């Protein structure tokens, strides 16, 4: 037989149980109230990204070759104009923290100044933009860890230079003292922590008249003068990626220059006599005679070429004539350095000063005209000496 049913518990027993439960829960409630709050989630800058995984291969790294355009100059300009600037913007650059010896300082300053002058001429904003890119590269894991190393990176290889002036023979050029002094002052300011916000964290740039293969694989973020500036996409284009610390140990720029010149001399760009073609051609739409009718032949326009001091003046004229077939207005102008060849017309003072050869084809507008820089081509058997420019 079953025993008697248990009596129901008194209300005070339930109250005791609730009190006991509250005592157990109290420490956890206090811990939740008074413990340190969780660390806030730091939102990245509007121009940055929180992606932390690198792509398997980065386009346009130090292993890539010198900038070569996939299009001719007119098509490259048009193609570049069609590419919109990325919404992320250039980002906010961090000041460069220089740590090195006095010798490192002088070498870094001169390499930075050289890059600014060679890439941007005497333009203040252009030089600072180029210098910012160099310093960004020094702090990026994909590039050399010194200023001179980043500037001359790849110049020891025939097709590996990151800055084209280090492998196209332009290192042989001499700059006036005034230009050096101005560029060095800008370089000193950058090494002291000045930044160029216009290009931010950009690590790449190219002129608007070229279109390298990697141009559509990076984000276009700025324009300064004729140059377009780019960042990698994702984490590697962010300010956080510029994490490599600078520690000095700058290589000797004189030795780097000597090596680069030796490589360039052994692998020169073809001159007009070697290739028979122009380095850059500008169509009638951009020449100085906009009211003239469209040229009637493919050879019409203005052709910029490379010439050498050992070239035969007579042979140069014959080559120029072969470029200027048909009846349209045609001009061929030559420089002895690839970096001196301008991007567009009209020629500026520097392009006129370094001009070595000028040919205007005979047309309804006048007779054939031939001019040579008689310092480069002494006593040419054909044509006239160009006026001397200081």
What keywords describe this structure?
390 residues, globular, 2 domains, 31% helix, six-stranded mixed β-sheet, three-stranded antiparallel β-sheet, 10 helices
**How many DSSP-defined strands?**
9
Helix content: 25-40%
> Treating each run of at least 4 consecutive H or I residues as one helix, how many helices?
10
* Shape verdict: globular
Class from helix and strand fractions: alpha+beta
**Sheet with the most strands?**
6 strands, mixed
Largest sheet, spatial ordering of strands: 4-5-6-7-8-9
The parts where pLDDT drops under 50 for at least 5 residues are 1-56, 285-298
In whole angstroms, the N-to-C terminal distance is 128 Å
Q: Spell out the helices and strands N to C.
A: HHHHHHEEEHHEEHEHEEE
Number of domains: 2
- Rg on CA atoms, Å: 32 Å
Kindly report the average pLDDT value: 79
Strand-residue proportion: 5-15%
Describe the structure.
The chain is an alpha+beta fold and 390 residues long. The protein folds into two domains: 73-265, no CATH class; 272-385. It contains ten helices and nine strands. The chain has helices spanning 11-34, 73-82, 102-120, 124-138, 147-151, 177-191, 253-266, 272-275, 313-323, 349-353; strands at 204-207, 219-224, 227-231, 280-282, 301-306, 330-335, 355-360, 369-372, 384-385. The strands form two sheets. It has a six-stranded mixed sheet with strand order 4-5-6-7-8-9. A three-stranded antiparallel sheet has the order 1-3-2, with helices on one face. Helix 3 crosses helix 4 and helix 3 crosses helix 6. The longest helix is centred in the N-terminal third of the chain and has 24 residues, at 11-34. The N and C termini lie far apart (128 Å).
């Amino acid at each position: 037989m079953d025993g008697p049913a248990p009596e129901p518990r008194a209300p005070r027993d339930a109250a005791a149980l609730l009190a006991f439960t509250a005592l157990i829960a109290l420490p956890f409630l206090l811990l939740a109230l008074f413990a340190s709050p969780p660390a806030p989630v730091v939102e990245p800058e509007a121009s940055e990204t929180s992606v932390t995984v690198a792509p398997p291969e980065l386009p346009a790294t130090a292993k890539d070759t010198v900038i070569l355009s996939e299009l001719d100059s007119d098509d490259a300009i048009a193609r570049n104009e069609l590419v919109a600037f990325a919404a992320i913007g250039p980002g906010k650059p961090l000041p460069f923290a220089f740590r090195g010896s006095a010798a490192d300082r002088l070498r870094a300053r001169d390499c930075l100044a050289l890059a600014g002058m060679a890439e941007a001429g005497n333009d203040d904003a252009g030089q600072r933009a180029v210098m910012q890119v160099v310093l960004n590269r020094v702090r990026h894991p994909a590039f050399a860890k010194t200023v001179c190393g980043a500037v001359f990176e790849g110049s020891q290889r025939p097709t590996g230079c990151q800055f084209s002036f280090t492998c196209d023979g332009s290192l042989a050029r001499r700059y006036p003292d005034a230009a050096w002094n101005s560029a060095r002052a800008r370089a000193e300011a950058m090494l002291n922590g000045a930044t160029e916000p216009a290009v931010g964290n950009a690590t790449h740039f190219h002129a608007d008249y070229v279109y390298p293969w990697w141009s559509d694989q990076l984000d276009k973020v700025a324009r300064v003068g004729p140059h377009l500036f780019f960042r990698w996409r994702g984490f590697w284009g962010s300010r956080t990626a510029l994490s490599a610390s600078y520690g000095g140990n700058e290589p000797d720029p004189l030795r780097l220059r000597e090596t680069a010149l030796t490589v360039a001399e052994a692998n020169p760009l073809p001159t007009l006599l070697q290739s028979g073609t122009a380095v850059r051609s500008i169509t009638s739409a951009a020449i100085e005679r906009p009211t003239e009718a469209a040229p009637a032949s493919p050879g019409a326009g203005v052709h910029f070429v490379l010439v050498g001091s050992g070239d035969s003046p007579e042979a140069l004229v014959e080559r120029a004539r072969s470029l200027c077939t048909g009846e349209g207005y045609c001009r061929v102008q030559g420089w002895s350095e690839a970096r001196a060849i301008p991007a567009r017309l009209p020629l500026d003072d520097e392009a006129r000063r370094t001009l070595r050869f000028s040919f205007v084809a005979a047309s309804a507008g006048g007779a054939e005209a031939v001019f040579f820089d008689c310092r480069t081509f002494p006593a040419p058997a054909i044509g006239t000496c160009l006026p001397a420019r200081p």
